[in-house]
Amino acid sequence: MTDAAAFDAACATALDAARAADQRDPLRAFADRFLHPVDAAGRRVTYLCGHSLGLQPASVATLVREELDAWARRGVLGHHDGARPWIPYHERLAPALARLTGAATDEVVAMNSLTVNLHLMMVSFFRPAGARTRILIEASAFPSDRYAVESQLRFHGLDPAQHLVEIGPRAGERVLRTEDLVAAIERDGERLALVLLPGVQYLTGQCLDMAALTAAAHRVGATVGLDLAHAIGNVPLALHDWNVDFAIWCSYKYLNAGPGAIGGCFVHARHGQDTTRPRFAGWWGHDKATRFRMGPDFHPIAGAEGWQLSNPPVLATAPLIASLELFDAATLPRLREKSLALTGRLRELIQTWLADTVEIVTPAEADAHGAQLSLRVKRPGTTSRRLDERLAAEGVIGDWREPDVLRLAPAPLYNSHADVVHAATVLRKVLGP
Fold this sequence. Notes:
globular, 4-stranded antiparallel beta sheet, 7-stranded mixed beta sheet, about 40% helix, 15 strands
């Protein structure tokens, strides 16, 4: 038997096992509740890019059309009338967001975008005073987070070169170690005002030990903020019990709310009930009972809603309602179980078929990763960007990030075990033996 014939046989065996797993999957019907991209010939592609932009729930068009119809038929009266009045529109999202984040409903709010929310949170929670003037982030933080942090430091008259602390992996390693982060927090303890870290690191797919890092920061008297862009809807969260001070996220990745969708924010109850905390204020954060009296004095709503600036964009919020209904129906524990199975299958196939060619950057431990696998091709001359293009030409959609990472993420709401086998097969075909 030739190597090609042996590989074909291995692919067939793997696909049979995957299809059997799909038949046993209690969540398999959810894939039909999404709209899947197709290629130029109309064939459905294998979409493994939910870490960047989730697929559109099939019910989104109906929900958006209903809001357009309400606007057309009711005009301004739609703020108060109809199936989903617009004034309390964002409140419909709080229960599901609370379940996904491990929070109380008054600790979460859907508003703005991630970076806007980060700035609003730093206004309230980065309060440099005395020796406490430093912010700790990871060295490869998402650029928008870094830009926001540096600009906040400069806003306070602080030089990032002196007051920004960056922690990276050890020499020769690709991911962060909890003990190194804890040591850095302790080393700068009395000088740290804020520790800002991701729940899941965007480049490597590593899920940080958020509970341990929050506890370490609090032991030295620092405030803790989390960027959950790649964590919400992906990994289990317990923000209230972990005692996280604040968190922010976007909703267009695993939450499938569409490009530029409304973001979200968590403020722990111990802060949310403190209406004297400094903040940048806006009308929609004002006490609901007196909001329309149009008075000059700002009285913030207790809880995360008190940080709102403006009423939510209804047409950009409706898709999140559709997606969160699916999360509630599927439940995060079942989704997480399937996610680990999908990512585990993809990892096993890559290690079996491409061990000499592909390095899996993402940690293997179940509690140290989400749905995403970050891959680095060890073959000289093969860039992640070029590999991403070749995979797309073969009907597998992932993405690449500089300097050398290809990201693939099977999302349990709409991906199958057969999708994973197909992606691994195409990756092997593109890269060769």
